[in-house]
Design a protein that fits this description.
The structure is a single chain. The chain has about 290 residues and is mostly helical. The protein is about 75% helix and about 0% strand. It is built from 14 helices and no strands. Helix 3 packs across helix 14 and helix 9 packs antiparallel against helix 11. The longest helix has about 35 residues, at about 65-100. It is globular.
């Protein structure tokens, strides 16, 4: 038995640095080149085109009634979808991570469903449900209720495509943390709500912010599902991504790229915040028993 230790394989100390320097240089150069072409260059083009006629023209484009309406609608839809998905995500993650119940695997599959369904297909599903010839269409018309080509339809489509983000950010975190702290709080006389707000919520706050951040970014940038259910009514149902396409097709390039630059800035802010939150999450991970 004592000889087994001497026969154990020990990997080289330099690990991934065993490749020749030329190969490492080529790999890094290809990665940097890829990022420059597919990430940095498009951002540069967006901002350069937005400011191509100067700063006054840029802000004039953003102050147009159509642009203001699109910005307000985008913020409204993002607020609705993030708020509802925040509530659902916390409840679903708490149930999946803390309890065992029949249909648990099926619930996890349903949460992941929007990841595997094209946004355009999800938009068509709402058309089949709430359209004039849809399943609920006649009832909605009889009661003068508008779902499609109005804010409710856009909100429903956005909620669907952003459905998994909060729950998926919280489930692995809460599973890793276990139930010991909650059980201890309950054994000391804490109620369910007290346990959640004083024990569970502080432990998941960074993961919750991470999920909300991704959910908000997807909600504000969603195009496919919203395009199907919005009807493209100018000044009413066009979100920022839809308006970018419309203005570009009408050769209003400065206005189009001005609005696109707002979405690009959102992407950059999201990237920075995502990096910060990932570091916070790494710091709060429960150490493993090695």
């Amino acid at each position: 038995m004592s000889e087994q230790h001497s026969l154990t394989y020990t990997p080289p100390r330099d690990g991934v640095h065993t490749e020749p320097g030329a190969i490492r240089f080529v790999i890094v150069a290809l990665a940097v080149l890829f990022l420059l072409i597919f990430v940095v260059l498009p951002l540069v083009v967006v901002f350069a085109s937005a400011f191509s006629r100067g700063i006054p023209a840029y802000f004039t484009a953003l102050r147009q009634p159509e642009a203001l309406a699109a910005i307000k609608l985008t913020l409204l839809i993002a607020a609705i979808s993030v708020s509802l998905n925040l509530i659902f995500g916390v409840i679903a993650a708490w149930a999946i991570a803390k309890f065992d119940f029949p249909g648990k695997t099926f619930l996890i599959t349903l949460i992941d469903l929007p990841f595997s369904v094209s946004p355009v297909i999800s938009g068509l599903v709402f058309v089949l449900l709430f359209g004039a010839q849809g399943f609920f269409g006649s009832w909605l018309q009889a009661n003068d209720i508008r779902i499609l080509f109005a804010v409710p339809g856009i909100a429903l489509a956005t909620i669907f495509v952003t459905f998994p983000f909060v729950a998926r950010a919280l489930i692995p975190l809460m599973q890793e943390q276990g139930t010991q702290e909650e059980e201890a709080a309950i054994s000391l006389g804490a109620s369910g709500l007290q346990t959640f707000f004083r024990v569970t919520l502080p432990n998941i706050k960074w993961g919750l912010l991470y999920g909300v951040l991704l959910c908000n970014a997807r909600a504000m940038g969603e195009f496919g599902a919203v395009s199907v259910v919005s009807g493209h009514i100018r000044g009413e149902t066009n979100t920022m991504p839809l308006l970018v396409e419309i203005l570009y097709n009408e050769y209003q390039f400065v206005a189009s790229f001005a609005i696109a630059s707002l979405l690009a800035m959102l992407a950059l802010i999201t990237l920075v915040a995502k990096t910060i939150l990932e570091r916070r999450l790494d710091e709060t991970q429960v150490p493993s028993d090695d």
